[in-house]
Amino acid sequence: MTQSLDYGTVNRNRYMDAAFKRFVSNKYILSAVLKGCVREFRDSDIEEIIGCLDVDEGTDRVKGNSNEYDSENGGRIVMDSVFEVRLPNEDEKVGVIVNLEGQTVDRRDLGARAMYYGSSLIAQQKGRDFRNMDYGSLRKVYSIWCILRPQSDRRDTIASYSMQGRYLGGFEGRSPLNDCDFLEIVMIGLGNAEKGPSPASDDPIAKTKRMLEVFFDNRLSDREKTDEIEQLYNIPYNDGLNQSLEDIRQMLSYDEWVQAEIEEREREAYERGLHDGQVDIVVRNIRSYMSKKNVSLEQALEDFDLSEEEREIVIEIVRGSE
């Protein structure tokens, strides 16, 4: 029997992190995410991918690496989950390193944070996976971010960032550029599983996104979730999956999750008010946001997508009435 998380002794952020970590360490869930987000597994079937994972004997749980790293300045980096994964048809113990992060509230600096996490996992390889100047032994790193409550303009999106070399115009060489494809960032902005159609069975990227939406949509019942997950992904309903559903149900009931939905609606109303010229609605919403989050006007404005002209209007109105 899978042991339940102790809801009463962990704070909300730690609980959400633990719930997401346990969710993605399920071998069926992780293999589905890898198939959709990691190019090296795009043409592999789920059973083949599971064979590339380090699974605890007799369980569905994939063993993860340490998720805490010391930076050069003495700071500590704490990630959600890190997995070392073999590649199909290769004898090497580690093919790629995968960092998986669940983000409850969307922030505009997530791309920079993902780059920092991924770069840290690259830097950590020296002295552990290779020594001295043997940089050719670097393993590729994927940093995959699941944004559970994305801002409206990033909802229903998947973005990928990678490093690709190119010759500058007029200075082209005859030989191909050396491969620098050692880091790829994938950002998944979830949509509404209740409204969205089930993806075609031959589209692994859409299937991965849909699977995550089904699990993290609090409008669907556990029965609706398990029916679709079993039919679409052949993920067996067992103690491990049942516990993940319980974790997620508890996670979705937390006040700050509900608060994130309220703030998203406030942001949409705020931006709609700007567009429609409803200044009183704009001022009321921004003040409410500042009060609830206990942030300055400048910080509040950073959390909204506004043009420079719109920012100046808001600053003039709010400060002029102080």
Summarize this entry quickly.
With 322 residues, this protein is of the alpha/beta class.
Care to describe what's here?
Helix 1 (12-24) packs antiparallel against helix 7 and helix 2 (27-37) packs across helix 5 (204-215). The protein folds into two domains: 12-253, no CATH class; 258-320, no CATH class. The model is unreliable at 1-10 (pLDDT under 50). It has helices at 12-24, 27-37, 46-50, 110-123, 204-215, 222-233, 239-252, 255-276, 279-293, 297-302, 308-320, and strands spanning 68-70, 76-78, 81-85, 96-105, 140-149, 157-162, 183-189. By secondary structure, the chain is α/β, with parallel strands linked by helices. The N and C termini lie far apart (59 Å). The protein is 43% helix and 14% strand. The strands form two sheets. A five-stranded mixed β-sheet has the order 3-4-5-7-6, with helices on both faces. Strands 1-2 form a two-stranded antiparallel ribbon. The protein has eleven helices and seven strands.
Please indicate the count of domains.
2
- For the biggest β-sheet, the strand order reads 3-4-5-7-6
Task: Return residue spans where pLDDT drops below 50 for at least 5 consecutive residues.
Answer: 1-10
Shape: globular
Largest sheet: 5 strands, mixed
Helical content class: 40-55%
Count of DSSP strands: 7
Lay out the secondary structure.
Layout: H1 12-24, H2 27-37, H3 46-50, E1 68-70, E2 76-78, E3 81-85, E4 96-105, H4 110-123, E5 140-149, E6 157-162, E7 183-189, H5 204-215, H6 222-233, H7 239-252, H8 255-276, H9 279-293, H10 297-302, H11 308-320
Parallel strand pairs: 4-5, 5-7
Antiparallel strand pairs: 1-2, 3-4, 6-7
